[in-house]
Amino acid sequence: MKWQAWLERIWPSLPILAALALTSLLLLAFGTSPAVAFGAILEGVFSTPDRMLTALAFWIPLLLAAVGLLLTFQAGLWNIGIEGQIILGALGASWVALTFNFPAPVQISLEVLAGMAGGALWAGIAALLKRWGVHEIFGGLALNNIAIILTNFLIAGPWQPPEGGSFRGTVPFHEDALLPLVGATRFSLFSLVLAAVAFGLVVLALRNSAWGLRLKALGRNPRSAFLLGVSSNREALLAMMFCGALAGLGGAVRVLSWFDSLRQSISGGIGYLALMVVILAAFRLYLTPFVALFFAAVLTGSIVLQLRTQLHSSLGAILTGVMVLFVLLFGDFGRVRRLFKPRGDDHV
Amino acid sequence: MFDINWATVLLQSAPLIIAVCGETISERVGVVNLSLDGSMLMSAMTGFVAAYLSGSALVGFLAAAAVGAFFAFIVSFGSLALRQSQVAVGFVLTLLGDSLSAFLGQDYTRLPGPWVTKLPIPVLKDIPVIGPIFFNQDPMVYFTLVLVAVTYWWIFHSRPGLELRSAGERPEAAFARGVRVRRLRYLYAMLGGAMVGVAGAAYSLDVKIGWAEGHTRGLGWIALAVVIFGGWSPLRGALGVLLLVGVRSWIGTYLQPAAGADSTIVILNALPWLLMLVVLLVVSGKLTGDLVANAPPWLKQPLRRLLLVAPPAALGADLKEG
Amino acid sequence: MRTELQDISKRFGSVQANEKISLTFEPGRIYGLLGENGAGKSTLMKILSGFQPADSGRILLDGKVQRFASPADALAAGVGMLYQEPLDLPPFTVLENYLLGQAGGLLVRSPQVANHLRELGSRYGFKVNPEETIRNLSLGERQQLEMLRLLSGGAQLLILDEPTTGISAEQKALLFSSMFHLAEKEGKTLILVSHKLDEVQELCSQVFVLRKGVLVGGAELPCPNSTLVNLMFEQLPPRRERTKLAPGAPALELKNAVVRTPRLDLTPTDLQIGSGEVFGLAGLEGSGQELLLKACAGLLPLAEGRRLLAESDVTRLGYHATSKQGVRYIAAGRLEEGLVSGLTLTEHLALVTEEPAFLVDWQANRQKTQERIKHYQVVGTPESTIEQLSGGNQQRFLFGLLPDSLKLILMEHPTRGLDLRSTDWIWQQLNERRQAGTAVLFISADLDEIIERSDRIAVFSAGRMSRVVDASRTNVDELGHLIGGQT
């Protein structure tokens, strides 16, 4: 049937349009014109070069985390603990920033390394827990919360600013510790370079390395992979730690450029967002940076949305969330079509 | 040193226990509802708003139950009809539930509203020790106690419960015996979801009255973990919740004042999470397996039954390789 | 009850599993359904028993057209199927399994039903304990319970799929006598799906043969085996003679080996296998032979005792370290525990490649894969994913992944579910390796296969290994005794 072929071609866009439609309805219910709301988001991102760079600055850690998740997903793992890994990266970088006082290039290099180490360590703990039988979702969750508690402890205690613990942030880092920014924005060119290198490494690992192939086997069938010589414990650990290192790098970038000190919600939910990015990108390597960019744009734009419309800033998260949900549920044309066919077996 | 106000602990535990009962029946039939955290947030908000607008707490509970059932419907539909991963759909829903509840509830933050009033049972409440704990509470708590008993009996000692468990253990065999597996999965997943909804409302209308962004955040995840270390039994799960809440209460009453400095108090918040990890390690762990394997033969069976848990064999494919 | 299948057809994707098959079954007889693996037997029986619908065609019971929505539907109409792996629920009790799905009250405890179940069992000589958990029962007992359930559910036609694999000799005798009783005394129809021609000859009065989804013919029994074989295969697989080899230097040794698991303990065991020797392990499922095999591979640790490979102590080594010494373990489920769905043939080969490198040379690997495909006569390309291959080709490729020289091959049920031709091919491969000095240790539920293929045999019962017997000097009865626990 001709129209079926046509429908199949345009299908991928339908869930996205449906998400936009649903969000528009939501806006109307709250007495706001969708045009105004979406316009405000676009304004928040594109109106000035500074705003665009700010969106990019949000994008970098998100991209790092998302790309790291591609590794853990390849191994069949749900690395929910990525949020905590970002935080530990920030903690590692903060520690170096507050403890040492080297000239900028050395200082920053140490901070970056410490960030990667922190994230890798936290991911390693989750991997170890999994090895001992605790599913990585729960291990990651507990570790996320512990990471937050650790952050709050450090802010209120040992690293508190001289005027007393206000639970907002630590002592601001000295000039040399921070990443050089472009103009008045929070965007750091150096972090972009780091992100690009990280992306390249992950492409290499997934597509061309023996290790990536082992991860792929592990993710599809751990039992067979084991009998074929893949040590699931070791590979899962490595995948987690590589991902943790990238997430930690993102956390370091966050604390050294987006902020100037360690803050309470240092990770900003970026870890959970990265999971959404990867799901929406259907785990496709080359689609991930663009989806991450889209998320970054919508979420930074939502801040202006709040200013313009007095609406809660979570609208951006709602839009992206509904989009991911619809694409996840209805994005596969074949499966949706099968809904309308008579069923043979009822037992699934 | 160990004197805890168990009546308060029971009250605070009740919403979580309801959620655990709900998720237990859902997972027993083979559907894992990872959207629990977002679902509870949405139903807590909905429950409060509905009660506020209608003036009746009961209306709030019903609205919340509907919301919870709807979330569960999306997860089961996505899995059973559209063959998508239960974990993925549940996870996306959990984040959505968080942001939606914040957005939709923005006008109802920090407002006073109706709540569930206490209903002491005469005579029973005067029984020493257990009287004040169990019979000097409000209807929500009584509901919880009855729910645990009913759910437990239903799952393990009734014929429909046999069908429920068979659908989660070996759906092909159940199907071969005429059990309508798909129908049961939708039914119990949504019933479980409704209970989760009630749990959310139980929080915003009873335990911590009112609504604010992120009100119940974290509770859904804890419920999911408790279902595991409760061994997929509502009774063990309820005890697990009481243990967790009791420990937290004990920390709050005895350890935190002793700790002194603000910063140390913060660290004590980590103890419940560490406790959760330890318990999960014990029940699902390889370490315990070794312990049981090397135990003397007469001790093996009871030890295994007590310590090790096994999920329903056909539980949402993703979570199997735990 | 007269059963008719008219023009039954079923297609799975590009495979025509059943093509216009028409058969008639009269009451009071036992029929045999024969055919190679993939001939369409189980598809046809699943359709008849209501597990899946046909694409086209009709089923008639006593002249009335039937439409089954589920196996329960079919049973209500009188058709029941007994699977090779019984479709029961291991964590539940016998009584619960029996009651499940039946109409009734809210409660499960029902002494009348328990008694009824016991009586029903005794009619056929089955011993039934309603309180026992299914998991603790042997395969034969589970089979008996399934039969009782189907019979009491009203089955007039009973389909049995490979029922004698994995049950003890006594249980087999009981099964056969109950089958004759059902057909002759109770007028039921029985259909036996089996590879074992001698059993088919003993039980059935008529056979039908399927080949590649089509009914190619039938025969009244008794008749010469060669007639049946000719119908089943286009060409006869040549029977290769097995050369008698003197076992060489010890390849594998176990001394006082003890394995402990939460469910079963393996008592201290001694074992020696020479290079080039084929050693068979028999016994009911869960008797400990799986534990022993896994322990030899390093998949399970030894709680006590020692394990030696070609004279060197490898007790502490896990599977990966053991495999580096020239050992391979091949599990029973190809796709579950051996191959990875979603990976191409080239990816599989690159995964097991001997030369460790950081980057994968896809070009070289593709070429090597092509060579292996040719050598092992696999129908597939380097870029096909493994699940696109048929079962037989998957098995060939699995063997193609093995390194050239091995000291020891450990196999779980090497030919389970395979037809004669594939079975022959596997043993031919194993024999070639034998000539090169590889020792083979394998588990099988098929006593005939074990006697025919092994040099020596050991039997397992309740975690204990019997004395070792010489295959050329033993028979099925003796093995049966050993399985039963007698010495």
Description:
The complex is a heterotrimer of chains A (348), B (322) and C (487). Chain A is mostly helical. Helices cover 72% and strands 0% of the residues of chain A. The longest helix of chain A has 28 residues, at 104-131. Chain B is globular, with a radius of gyration of 20 Å. Chain B has 322 residues and is mostly helical. The model of chain B is unreliable at 318-322 (pLDDT under 50). The two termini of chain C are 46 Å apart.
What's the short version?
The complex is a heterotrimer of chains A (348), B (322) and C (487). Chain A is mainly alpha-helical and 348 residues long. Chain A contains 15 helices and no strands.
Mean pLDDT level of chain C: 86
CATH topology of the largest domain in chain C: Rossmann fold
Individual helix count of chain A: 15
- CATH architectural type of the largest domain in chain C: 3-Layer(aba) Sandwich
Written as H for each helix and E for each strand, in order along the chain, the element string of chain A is HHHHHHHHHHHHHHH
Strand content of chain A: under 5%
Radius of gyration of chain C: 24 Å
**Residue share in helix of chain C:** 25-40%
Shape field of chain A: globular
**Outline type of chain C:** globular
What is the rounded distance between the termini of chain A?
A: 30 Å
CATH topological fold name of chain A: ABC transporter involved in vitamin B12 uptake, BtuC
Name a few traits of the molecule:
heterotrimer; A: 348 residues; mainly alpha; ABC transporter involved in vitamin B12 uptake, BtuC; C: 487 residues; alpha/beta; Rossmann fold; seven-stranded mixed β-sheet; six-stranded mixed β-sheet; 16 helices
List the SSEs and their pairings.
The complex is a heterotrimer of chains A (348), B (322) and C (487).
Chain A: H1 2-10, H2 13-29, H3 34-46, H4 49-74, H5 82-99, H6 104-131, H7 136-156, H8 189-208, H9 210-220, H10 222-227, H11 232-258, H12 270-280, H13 288-309, H14 315-330, H15 333-339
Chain B: H1 6-28, H2 36-54, H3 57-81, H4 86-104, H5 130-134, H6 139-157, H7 159-169, H8 171-176, H9 181-207, H10 219-229, H11 234-259, H12 262-268, H13 270-284, H14 286-293, H15 297-307
Helix pairs in contact in B: 1-6, 1-9, 1-10, 1-11, 2-3, 2-4, 2-9, 2-10, 3-4, 3-9, 6-7, 7-9, 10-11, 10-13, 11-12, 11-13, 13-14, 14-15
Chain C: E1 3-12, E2 15-25, E3 30-35, H1 41-48, E4 56-61, E5 64-66, H2 71-77, E6 79-82, H3 94-99, H4 111-123, H5 139-152, E7 157-161, H6 169-185, E8 189-193, H7 197-203, E9 206-211, E10 214-220, H8 225-232, E11 250-260, E12 265-274, E13 278-283, H9 289-297, E14 304-309, E15 312-313, H10 319-324, E16 327-330, H11 345-352, H12 362-375, H13 391-400, E17 408-412, H14 420-435, E18 439-443, H15 447-453, E19 456-461, E20 464-465, E21 469-470, H16 476-483
Parallel strand pairs in C: 3-8, 3-9, 6-7, 7-8, 13-18, 13-19, 16-17, 17-18
Antiparallel strand pairs in C: 1-2, 1-4, 4-5, 9-10, 11-12, 11-14, 14-15, 19-20, 19-21
